[in-house]
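Long-time lurker. I teach an intro course on protein structure, and each term I like to show students one example going from raw sequence to a predicted 3D structure in token notation. This year I'd like something fresh instead of my usual example. Would anyone be willing to generate the tokens for the chain below so I can use it in lecture? Attribution to the forum is fine with me.
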Amino acid sequence: MKLYESPSPNARRVHIFMAEKGIECERIAVDIRAAENLSAEYLAKNPGGRVPMLELEDGTFIGESVAICRYLESLQPESPLFGESGIEAAKVEMWQRRAELNFLLEVAGAFRNITGFFKDRETCVAEWGQVCAERAPKMLSMFDEQLSQTAYLAGDTFSIADITLAVALDFARMVKVVALPELPNIERWYGEVSARSSFGAN
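-- Reply from a regular --
Happy to contribute to a lecture. Here you go:
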């Protein structure tokens, strides 16, 4: 397998997932600042033009970080990170989607529109970035409330939902476009998950 990647929250999500599963593969750097992910060669493999992307030995290409993680789970199903029973899987999916849609994408929207990081290839609207920056921290109260009742986002077991929210929080702290409130249950949970050896994966 080959993982095409560039430094990003989504690549880090896959790195942590692979570390949790004890899976390694060849990694190929993609320079998104130089638009290598928008080249004809890359787009032929992944029409979405996103990174990371996983190339399998049979020539299959899997784009989108969660889809990559689902495939990795099929290779190493022990200690499932997508839930085990039907209800567990549904809860993991629910909280994973909430973490991604309600927080990670809001932070990303603030970052892209306020900083103009990709202004050479997309229309940036600073006002929209500010809207995202204001909405993102408000969304965290939902996760704090959940974590007042459960050890992890989807219940008593660590899952990809926890990886997504933790990676999103780290990204928000790094890009500094969103003011993060101090929420006790998130702080307790973050201290525990960030101490996992997998979070040191590069």
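Some talking points for your students: Helices lie at 9-21, 40-45, 65-75, 86-115, 126-147, 160-175, 184-194. The chain is about 55% helix and 5% strand.
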